[in-house]
Amino acid sequence: MSSKIVDRFVEKAPFAVMTRVLAQDFIGSKLNRIFDDNRELQYDYVATFQAVAATVADVALNFSDNFNQAYKEHKEELEVSRQSFYAKTRGVEPAVSEAIVLHSVERAIEMQEALEFGAWELLPGYRCLSVDGNVLAKSDKRLKVLREVKGAPLPGKVVARFDLQRQVFDRAYVLLDGHSQESTCCDRIVDDLVPKDVLIADRHYCIVPFLTKVAEANGFFAIRQHGRLKGVLLGKRKRIGRISTGVVYQQEMKLSAADDAMTVRRITVELDEPTRDGDQVIHLLTNLPNEIAATVVAELYRHRWEEETAFNVLQMTLTCEHSGVGHPQAATFLFCMSVLAFNLRQTIFAALYATHDDEAVQETSHFHISKNVSDKTEGMLIAITEEEWDELIPSTTRGVASLLEKVARRIDLSAYRKSRRGPKKKKPHRSRNVASSHVSTAKLLWPNRR
What torsion do the CA atoms of 394, 396, 402, 403 make, to the nearest 10 degrees? Predict the structure, then answer.
């Protein structure tokens, strides 16, 4: 790091430097192998998958406003026409997009460990995972099948699993049909569990066969009870104590009236303040051992919001959705590349935790980091050549971690502190407008596919 030019960028654009260092690792040649291992129909010809992914990553990281701009920046390495590049993005299969997320979390965890980042222990002896879905925003009607459609086109949906200890997305389940139910991923979610995993989820996942399969896989759950699941209450409800949001009660419950139905604990929280949906009481179902107090489980469930916060970071500081990308496979590919970018960003936060006080890091704004990256990267890439980057970036994980720590130590985090705002005003209720109903782009493109 002796170059004066590099030193100036480290001083003025530290997060842009760190992002460039990690991008070479996260979006490297390994992506070509991941593509080969997971593709079914698509193939590499001229443009490598790594080059296509790097181009789409420019959009995800806000280096380019859209696919067209990104294509112009990467035209030489792609070596294909604009139309061919678009066709490549539309051909990326769900298994490939999902494998990209898995690759990114593996690299993020390796880097976190090299940085000696200690994962938070929410529940000693268990790994806590949140699961939630994200419906991709409606797209423009650029595809031929959409031009005569009145409803807003939905390009797909992604169900994501979030590691609450490491604060990274570690699985993505792609649903090309925007009308698909999140519950269609339940079997795959169970298949990815290891013993003593704890799934934390909202009531969409309160499905008896799913809860049963989680338990059979030696996993655990803390899931909000859905109104359609009545169950059979056993014994009397007992007051356990208070948490920060209300009073906690506990009662045993059978999931159904069947003799062999699983018995769980139903944990009730009578809230001091209603939820944003107006609920004064929430019920949680869990199969965690009785020695784990109901108050602990109730507090544990509150961490589910951390995944929603991560989704908000994707939407506000990265480009996970783009109205100009309407094809389901291209749209979900972009979303998964933005998840890769998020995991890359969390590696940067691990470097900050390794070199600064925890409180200062927690007050650091994702928005200001993203602004530093998007504003400074273009000039940095002009000033520092690819050959110079190859010389600057170490070839080992430990070497990259050391470089990140050196840059992180020089950052004045007070310049990137979160801005605090007053309470939000409640939005007025809007009646449903039939003319604005949604259509699934996938169903229009592939009407016979199941």
Answer: 30
The whole-angstrom separation of Cα 361 and Cα 353 is: 6
The residue whose two tokens read 């000693």 is: 124
Domains of the chain, residue spans: 1-195+306-416+437-450, 203-303
State the Cα–Cα distance between residues 159 and 174, nearest whole angstrom. 7
Phi, then psi, of 2 in degrees rounded to 5: -90, -20
Exposure string for 352-365, b = 16+ CB within 10 A, e = fewer: bbbbbeeebbeebe
Radius of gyration (C-alpha) of the chain in whole angstroms: 23
Rounded Cα distance, 99 and 344, in Å: 15
**348-399 tens-digit pLDDT:** 999 999 999 999 999 999 999 999 998 988 889 888 888 888 888 998 999 9
Q: Is the pLDDT reported for residue 431 higher than 70? A: no
Measured CA to CA in angstroms, residue 177 lies from 99, 157, 180 at distances of 19, 7, 5
pTM (predicted TM-score): 0.91
Asked whether 317 and 289 are in contact (CB, 8 A), the reply is no
Residue 277 has pLDDT above 60, yes or no: yes
